[in-house]
Design brief:
Layout lengths: L16 E6 L2 E6 L12 H14 L5 E6 L4 E3 L9 H9 L3 H4 L13 E5 L2 E3 L3 H5 L3 E5 L3 E3 L11 H9 L2 H10 L5 E2 H7 L4 E3 L5 H12 L4 H16 L2 H15 L3 H11 L18
Helix pairs in contact: 5-6, 9-10
Length: 283
């Protein structure tokens, strides 16, 4: 499928979000503290370009998405900047795969993505939480969904909530709107959050520690493993097994399939090939 987005210069044209790659780890940071790190229309093509770079840049092996400050991770869509014309153009006249590109999953990123939640998450901010692979939150984090309060349908982020939490918990957040904020501890108990840390200042060190551990693994094996696990959430069990088996066999042709056992036998660190299209000699 062809991919189309506004051309963004990742070194110059970002506003409200920062992006940098250091030591094979991509850092995506929402940075509109004066607006609660809310999402605005101009940020849509920016995030699409960022996630496209995470997906396609061979120098990136793991990504961390977080937000500036300690009060808000993301307070959702900046309603004052989304008017009715925006909604009609983006949400009505296009299928979802063409209209919605906030999250790594929506941009088909199969590299590991860690979400570090440092405060309140509202509405559209949940895209980045439910569509990441591992969610770390500080104790001050909280989660709420306000779509119904402003006359909108809670559907996309809410479907993600229903995948990560019990149905009743997802519906409680969806239907009660701003009257219910799920605290970080409860989100951890229900599985929306995978790890809790004490304070926002503890978040990035914890996320980096996870990311560095992942850098030791085969990039291609992680990508295909992630695709298999997300496939299990999307498909019935039998179909998920079939897809997993196809991905497993696909990896047999990649150099990392040979390099891993060889490095283990030679008692050395493996030399992974980051090219997903690389093939073993003779393939």
């Amino acid at each position: 499928m062809a991919r189309h987005w506004t051309k963004i210069d990742l070194k110059k044209d970002l506003d409200g979000v920062t992006y940098e790659v250091r030591d094979h780890i991509a850092y995506v940071t929402l940075d509109r503290r004066e607006r609660g790190n809310a999402l605005a229309p101009p940020m849509a093509p920016m995030l699409r370009a960022i996630w496209s770079d995470v997906r396609d840049n061979p120098d990136v092996r793991v990504a961390i998405v977080t937000a500036a400050g300690e009060r808000h991770f993301c307070t959702g869509a900046d309603v004052g900047e989304f008017d009715g014309d925006d909604a009609e153009e983006v949400l009505i006249n296009r299928p979802v795969e063409q209209a919605v590109h906030w999250s790594p999953y929506q941009n088909r990123v199969m590299k590991p993505v860690i979400c570090a939640v440092n405060g309140l998450v509202v509405g559209a901010g949940l895209h980045l939480v439910v569509d990441s692979d591992i969610v770390i939150a500080s104790e001050n984090a909280a989660f709420t969904d306000t779509h119904v309060n402003v006359g909108m349908v809670g559907a996309l982020e809410n479907a993600g909530l229903a995948k990560r939490m019990p149905l009743g918990s997802a519906l409680r957040m969806t239907l009660m709107g701003r009257a219910y904020r799920m605290p970080a501890q409860r989100a951890y108990q229900l599985g929306l959050v995978d790890e809790l840390v004490a304070t926002p200042s503890d978040l990035l060190p914890a996320a980096r520690e996870m990311a560095v551990a992942m850098l030791k693994n085969s990039p291609q094996a992680m990508a295909l493993s992630k695709e298999a696990v997300w496939g299990a959430a999307e498909l019935g069990y039998r179909d998920a097994l079939e897809k997993g088996w196809a991905l497993l066999r696909l990896h047999w042709a990649h150099p990392d399939f040979v390099e891993g056992p060889r490095a283990f036998g030679e008692k050395r660190e493996p030399r992974w090939n980051p090219d997903p299209n690389a093939r073993n000699e003779g393939e």
